[in-house]
Structures are given as C-alpha cells and as structure tokens.
Amino acid sequence: MEYSKKLSYNKQKEKEHKASGKSWAIVSIASIPLVMTLGNSMLIPVLPTFEKELGISAFQSSMIITVYSIVAIILIPIAGYLSDRIGRKKVIIPSLIIAAIGGLVAGWASWKIEDAYFMVLVGRVLQGVGAAGSFPIVLPLVGDLFKSDKEVSSSLGVIETSNTFGKVLSPILGAFLAGLVWFLPFLAFPAFCLISIFMMSFLVKPPKKTEAQSFKVFLFNIKSIFKEKGRWIYGIFIVGCILMYVLFGVLFYLSSMLEDKYGIHGVKKGLILAIPLGALCLSSYITGKKISKNKPLMKWISFAGIVIVAVSVFTISFSTNLWFLLSIFFLCGVGIGVSLPCLDALLTEGIEKEERGTITSIYSSMRFVGVALGPPVFAILMKKSDLMMFYSTTAVCIIAAIISLFAIKPKQKSTKG
Questions:
Q1: How sure is the predictor about 304, in pLDDT bands with cuts at 50, 70 and 90?
Q2: CB contact at 8 A, 343 and 153
Q3: How confident is the model at residue 416, as a pLDDT?
Q4: What is the mean pLDDT of residues 252-266?
Q5: Domain-by-domain residue ranges, the chain?
Q6: 130-134, 303-307, 405-409: lowest mean pLDDT where?
Q7: What is the dihedral of CA 331, 250, 41, 334, to 10 degrees?
Q8: Cα(298)–Cα(160) distance, rounded to whole angstroms?
Q9: Which residues of 149-165 are buried (b: 16+ CB within 10 A; e: fewer)?
Q10: For the chain, what percent of residues have pLDDT higher than 90?
C-alpha cells in the first residue's frame, strides 16, 4: 500500500514536471515573435527622427523597414527547408545571433559613423536574415513539440498573441527609447535577442530528429502535398497575406490620421495605436484556447473574422471622428485576431512533420508580403481618394472571405502525401 502511494506520488510529480517544462518551452518559443516584431515595428514611430539625425529623405528612411522585409521574404523558404533537414533549433539559434549582430552594426554605425546610412542598411539586412531563420520556424517547432491537436492550437494562439503583443508594445517602446537616445532602439534589439537565445538554448528540447529524407524524396513529398491539399493551402497563403496587408495598411492610415488631423505624436500616439492591437492580441489568445482540434470550427471562425474585418473597413468611410475610428479599428483588430490563430493551426496540423517547416515558411513569406505592401499601397490610395482606399480594401477582404469559405476545406485527419 505504501509503495503504491509512493509510485502514484512520483507519477504525479513527473506529470507536473513535464507540464512545467512544456509551459517554459512555449514561453521561450513565444519570445521569438515578440523580439522579431519589436526589431522591426519599434522603428516605425521614430523614422522621422532617423531622417533628421541621419540626414536622409523619407524614402530612404522607409528603406530601413523595407530591406528587412525583402530579405526575410527571400530567405524564409530556404530557412524552412533547412529546419526540416537539420533541425529547428540549429536554424533558430544561429539566426537569432545574426539578428543581434545586425542590431549592433546599425546601432554602432549610428553612434560612431558620421555618414551612417549605408551601414544602418547593412545592419538591417543582417536583421532580416535573422528574422527569416527564427520567427517562421516557430510554427513547425510547435507542431513538433506537441502531439495533441488541442495543445498545438492552444500554443499557436499563444504564439500569435506574443506576435501581436509585440506590435502593441512597439510604438510605445520605440518612441520611449528614441526619446532617450535616438539610436537606442537599434542597440536594445540585441539585448532582447540574447534573452531568446538563452531561453531557447536551455528551456526548449525538441524531439529527436528522425533520419533526414533525401532531397529527391523531399521534393516528391512537397509536390504531393500541393497536389493533394494545394487548394486549401493556397487559400490559407492568400488569406494570411491579405489580413497582414489590411492590418499594416490600416495602422498606417490611423497613424497618419493621428498626426495630421489630430496632432498626436510620440508615446501618446503609440498608446492610441495600442488599442486596436490590444484587441487583436486578446482575441488571438482566446481563440487559440478555444479552437482545440476542431478544424471545421477553425474555418468558420476565420471566415467570420474576415467578414468582421470587411464590414469594419467599409464602415470607417462614414466618419473621421476619433472615437468612432478607434471603435471600428477595435472591431477590425478582433476580426484579424480570431482569424490568424485558426489559419496557423489549420496549416500546422494539416502538414506532416517532415515538410512542415517548408510549407509554414512559405506561409510566413506570404504574410511578410502583406506587411511590406500595406503601408505603401495605402499611402498611394490615400493621396488619390480615401473612399477608393476603403472600398478597394473592402473588396480585397470580400475576396479573402470567399476564399476562406470555398477554398479552405482541409481533411479532418491529414494523410501523408
């Protein structure tokens, strides 16, 4: 009897230890999208300061953001393939180190070199390389770590929440750091990377990698996946791209309105921008907890979220009143927030582990395309007509809703291609 109680106690302790280990692993993994989001979005509110201090034009300052995204878009699929071949951590940790070095290069150049613009761009290129090999690999790593669909969905909700929280924090933190020393956002980034490197090194233990496929077999399986499941995979790619395009375009519009119409700048503007992003953050977290392994539910939640976004964008055209705008943007944040974790889970759970890194990395590239397109396209449309901007964006959202409704039809249980 005494032995039985002791055995039961030991089993309970073992379960608690495993649960604690999983929790710390998720916290460690979630730190990566948070850090990478800060590394890019933290610079957006302080670009005018960069223009003044570096003596550059508005177009040149925009390139500080653009080169990061372009490099990431190109390299993400390569990083995904490498993660499938050699392991997730072996790609993520070196990528975080490269990203940290990029921040040091940009910060050091801003501090020590008189004509620093070129070296700042070099630093941002290195950061883009690091971003390509870190954040996109997070999705397949979560799929590798957890066996149950419920754990995968819940964890992806945390990942998406962390990503969004980075967007909430970025304008506030960026404005604060630049207010102390204008190039401090560059130098703060390596410190954030070091935290993620430490946590990933010691708190995340991915399962042992099975024998790597030959490149020929790998290509055959990728082709088979797209042949068998291409319709809904392409659908998720397009919808993910559209949602990020709308998110960053709308944020650009709101940021411009706050400065040009209401004269709101700096940390105060960052706090206001945090309202819709906070709604996105909270809704992502709740959705990830609720969707479990119910793929039909994921589809319908994502469809409903896209419809909310379409209605919100259309409604914005009715008024420029600040409180009205914030209320509508709040709803828009909720719509995007409930959709993204569902798309992440559908893709991650629908692809076999051997090819998961490559497929999810292509998805991440498509999201980066949306991020890169949003602000410049909205800027062009704003110059022509606000109504054209709202109506065209609504039309794009309707297209995303139709794709979500008719194209995204994954099987309840995935099969090997």
A1: very high
A2: no
A3: 42
A4: 79
A5: 23-202+210-406
A6: 405-409
A7: 10
A8: 15
A9: bebbbbbbbbbbbbbbb
A10: 25
Rounded Cα distance between 381 and 390, Å, is 9
**Beta carbons within 10 angstroms of residue 387's beta carbon:** 10
Q: How many Cβ atoms sit within 10 Å of the Cβ of residue 108?
A: 17
Find where tokens 């669909």 sit.
Answer: 149
**pLDDT tens, position by position, 10-62:** 555 555 445 566 788 888 998 998 998 888 888 877 777 788 888 887 678 77
Burial class of 290 by CB neighbour count within 10 A (0 to 12, 13 to 18, 19+):
middle
Q: Which two tokens stand for residue 194?
A: 């070091």
Superfamily of domain 23-202+210-406: MFS general substrate transporter like domains (1.20.1250.20)
pTM reported for the whole predicted model: 0.75
Tokens of residue 256, six digits: 């411009």
Rg of the chain in Å (alpha carbons): 22
Select from 411, 158, 412 the least CA-distant residue to 293.
Answer: 412
Q: Are 104 and 208 in contact (CB under 8 A)?
A: no
**Which among 143, 49, 157, 152 is positioned nearest to 88, based on CA atoms?**
143
d(C-alpha 409, C-alpha 389), whole Å: 31
pLDDT above 50 (res 240): yes
Q: What is the DSSP letter of 213?
A: P
Q: Maximum distance among all alpha carbons in the chain? A: 81
